[in-house]
Design goal:
CATH class of the largest domain: Alpha Beta
Strand order of the largest sheet: 5-6-7-3-8-9
CATH superfamily of the largest domain: P-loop containing nucleotide triphosphate hydrolases
Strand content: 25-35%
Number of strands: 13
Radius of gyration: 24 Å
Family: Belongs to the ABC transporter superfamily.
Order of helices and strands: HEEEHEEHHHEHEHEEHEEEHEHH
Organism: Croceicoccus pelagius
Number of domains: 2
Keywords: ATP-binding, Nodulation, Nucleotide-binding, Transport
Bound molecules: adenosine-5'-triphosphate
Pfam families: ABC_tran (PF00005)
Protein name: ABC transporter domain-containing protein
Shape: elongated
Helix content: 25-40%
């Protein structure tokens, strides 16, 4: 599906620009081939400034390649990208923090020195980097290991230090490639909090993930990517609204005039107590349904109406195979 021409996306972009005048990232129709094989095939991305954005897809979908094109590490074969208002990502590198998929800091460096070193690559004087690095470590609850060498740290601790190093020069945009991979449940929760805090302070965050729950909890907008294509780009709520809400209804009575208010095909499961259970998709408004149930004497015992979750929306948008690949790519220990 060509989302560039999708009315809801075009409308949202216009609304975003009218509201804030700012998209931190605007990429259109990015294409990248490796040895003749298309890795990324027409990706569109619109990230409003100060928001959290997720690129969601299974292994090999094209997430890293997309992020690298946005950063200017590789150039697209075609398409356009504008990052923090610039069409040349290198010109604004000092305003970006990047956690690459490949992890690694110098093992012999102390944490504060490693953070200062990464900051210096983005133009921050080392002494200031060390000072800020210590503060970042303390704020994160890592003050007690600020002077420990990277080699003496656990994998998760070292990864967190690397993440903090991407923030030391106070970037306007933070790009995180699979930041949750390899972290235990508690560290993942703390990272979610850190990301939320960044956005609250006005920093734009874009991250890739193959775990739906992180995207669902954190993001305002997402791109769903599968096989290099983006079948959905937009608000998480818009993705969820692709599917009708699900109604679960329990009634004391089995029959009555109220039954005509239920969609055709909503077959009851008869309860031994005489009532019935119904599960069906809400096709119209809630109020008329509720009125018909009450006035028609259904005897409501329980009623819940649930919006579709991102998982079901993902299946509807990207298909069963992509959803299975997403789940299979979820490494053991990943927290959902
Ligand atoms: N430098 C490269 N040379 C050749 N093929 C590449 C290169 N980089 C990526 N690819 C291929 O492009 C496709 C997309 O890879 P990419 O790393 O962007 O996916 P991803 O969604 O980030 O997956 P993962 O989570 O596994 O890293 C894959 O088929 C991959 O094998």
């Amino acid at each position: 599906m060509d989302m560039t021409k999708s009315p809801d996306k075009a409308e949202f972009d216009r609304a975003v620009q009218a509201d804030t005048g700012t998209l931190a990232i605007e990429a259109r129709d990015l294409v990248k081939r490796f040895d003749g094989t298309v890795a990324v095939d027409g990706v569109d991305i619109s990230v409003p400034a100060g928001t959290i954005y997720g690129i969601l897809g299974p292994n090999g979908a094209g997430k890293t390649t997309t992020l690298r094109m946005l950063l200017g590490i590789i150039d697209p074969d075609s398409g356009t990208r504008k990052v923090l208002g610039s069409e040349n990502p290198h010109a604004i590198a000092h305003r970006i923090g990047y956690l690459p998929e490949e992890r690694g800091l110098y093992p012999s460096m102390k944490a504060v020195d490693a953070i200062a070193f990464v900051g210096s690559l983005r133009g921050l004087p080392r002494a200031e980097g060390r000072e800020r690095g210590r503060k970042l470590m303390e704020d994160y609850g890592f003050g007690h290991i600020a002077d420990r060498q990277i080699r003496q740290m656990s994998k998760g601790q070292a990864q967190t230090v690397q993440l903090l190093s991407t923030l030391v020069h106070k970037p306007d945009l933070v790009v995180l490639d699979e930041p949750f991979s390899g972290l235990d449940a508690i560290s993942q929760g703390r990272l979610e909090k850190l990301i939320r805090g960044l956005a609250t302070e006005g920093t734009t965050v874009i991250f890739s993930t193959h775990v739906l729950a992180h995207a669902e909890r954190l993001c305002e907008r997402i791109a769903i990517i599968a096989g290099g294509k983006v079948p959905f780009e937009g608000l998480v709520s818009t993705a969820r609204d692709r599917l009708p809400p699900q109604v679960h209804l329990e009634t004391r009575n089995l029959d009555g005039p109220w039954r005509s208010a239920l969609p055709t095909g909503a077959e009851p499961q008869v309860k031994s107590s005489g009532g019935a259970l119904f599960d069906f998709s809400l096709t119209g408004e809630v109020e008329p349904l509720l009125a018909a149930l009450i006035e028609g004497g259904a005897g409501i015992e329980a009623l819940s109406i649930e919006r579709a979750g991102l998982h079901d929306a993902f299946v509807a948008i990207a298909g069963e195979a992509a959803a299975r690949a997403l789940e299979e790519g979820t490494a053991e220990g990943d927290v959902k």
